[in-house]
Amino acid sequence: MHPLKRLYPYLKPHLWLIVISGFLAIPLSALRFAPAPLLKYLVDDLATHHSQSRLVGITLALLGIYVVNFFVRFAHYFLIRVVYVRVGARIRQDLFN
User: Fold this and answer.
1) Percentage of residues in the chain with pLDDT exceeding 90?
2) Could you report the per-residue pLDDT of 6-34, keeping only the tens digit for each?
3) Which residues of 23-33 are buried (b: 16+ CB within 10 A; e: fewer)?
4) What is the spatial distance between Cα 69 and Cα 46, in angstroms, rounded to a whole number?
5) How far apart are the C-alpha atoms of 91 and 42, rounded to whole Å?
6) DSSP category for residue 31
7) Predicted TM-score of the model (pTM)
8) 50: phi > 0 → left, psi -120 to 50 → alpha, else beta; which?
């Protein structure tokens, strides 16, 4: 636990970015598993009814899920990367100055 205490002063200015990124992890995990029920519905229901309007609707829903997943994942990883770069730069600055 001691190394984490030493890291806290470097993380403290970026705590809000870490919290936002943590909250983005919740919809990110939900979006990761959201296509599974839609694909089950697609295979089970649409294979028997052959409805083209349902097929288009499910396909657009899947596409929408993947688009939203992309933006949420991008924001999550971007925030984590910003914290990583800033903390690393500050540690290097303190270490070599």
Assistant:
1) 59
2) 889 999 999 999 999 999 999 999 998 88
3) ebeeebeebee
4) 25
5) 51
6) H
7) 0.80
8) left
